[in-house]
Amino acid sequence: MTARPWWRGAALYQIYPRSFADSNGDGIGDLPGIVRKADYLQWLGIDAVWLGPFYPSPMVDFGYDVSDYTGVDPIFGSLGDFDELVTALHARGIRVVVDFVPNHSSDRHPWFVESRSSRTARRRDWYVWADPAAGGGPPNNWESYFGGNAWEFDPATGQYYLHTYHRTQPDLNWANSEVRQAMADVLRFWLARGVDGIRVDVLWILAKDPALRDNPLNDQWQPGEPYWHRQVRRYSEDQPEAHTHARFIRAVIDEFPDRVMIGEVVLPAERAVAYYGVAQDEAHLPLNFSLAELTPWSPQTLRAAIDDYLGSLPAGAEPNWFLGNHDFERITSRLGQRMARLAQVLLLTLPGTPLLYYGDELGLPNGRIPVDLMSDPQAVAFPERSREAARTPMQWDTTAHAGFSTATPWLPVSRPGAKWTVGQQHKDPASMLSLVRSLLYYRAKNPALRDGNYAPLPVTDPRMLAFTRTSGDRGVAVVASFADEVMPAPACPDGQWTVLLSSAANNDPQILKPMEGKVLEMTRHTSAAGERQAGIRS
Ligand code: GLC
Ligand code: CA
Fold this sequence. Notes:
23% of the residues lie in helices and 15% in strands.
């Protein structure tokens, strides 16, 4: 029997390092700050942490513009601090996944400095250079995610370089085997240091059409929709070669035992799941954006998103779910407090691997960022699409700056006041934090929730959503009501319900309060009475 890989069913917790905890009073979170909070992470009950980039960087895209792939930016600490962080988390049974940004470096990276130095530079071909179009101007019509054409003219050498993101983030040329080998060495560097997994940034963008053909325009696009949908990105993303690169990265990760490869693939479900690989030799977990992008949020759209996604998964592939991350608005602001509680119930009970974004366990709402403080390159181009609202400091206690820092934080605290702190919420059984922690507790303890089979449970009212998770003789049901009145809960198919937990403090298994999500344990009539009981088992 082969052991089940650790990441199947594991609960991941995403930390944005700038915003978690500041240890040295400069207003910016850092690695020693995370070490100080290791006990909190263990107490919360997560299985692994995904750390956003902490590498040396000019910070134009807050670390997604890397100028040295195998170092730690002094803002965040040192390599020694990183090793201490890994040791501290491992000592608490928590795995560590790091971000890897292979599609582009910073324009300050020595590779790019060399590449742009002349047309004959040794590393010229490490980036994507092209001559101006026949009549002058950029080589094609590709657009940058941060606005404008994706090509920047380099007057000294008379060619353009490609930047899918900011002009200070030139795209590396993955068609060049030297680039691939250099990146493999970067992966080996971190894997040998003991990280348990890699989250690959923009995996689906690594390959580009070799002929650099123009993208077709999207004639369905309406003003108000994300500007990056103005083009159908047919030639600039999701190319067949991206799968070759995914297999290459996976093979390097597989040189080390028991590691996970997570891939960012912002694509519709049926194209995203292709990044598991035909032979399941690409990402273990191509990220599933369906819940983060779901609009409107309703039982119908949710059911369709869940069915579509689970229905398109290859056999044996592990599903994954998240409600938001550092690129989205806060889930609480998207849905409101009550619905955000229901959403956490779904996130942490759907089959597969959930990713929880730091601060969502407190129900933190979007920060209100004054326009003059916005420096996210996406916000600079499109202020209404600032990503900073979801990157505000973690809120620990009622000391200055919510206990995040002794100095003014780089972004203002989202909501001052005890209500929004770990210190307050951990004492309050009705808080979001207590709900999330109970959900994590039951996931860890109950094999039906962690690994059990999933089946939809029929409901009598379209405002409800329900499913079961079963493993051996254990079974739970998750029932959610989107109604704003009290509703009868679905009948237990076999036996009776016991309430394990409720997002609305409701212990009655027969009814659902407005916008309640609840986890019920099925007690079969045949099982010995008293054997199962509600509440936390030791
Ligand atoms: C990913 C990251 C995002 C970043 C972009 C460019 O989408 O999640 O934050 O800006 O890649 O690296
Ligand atoms: Ca700091």
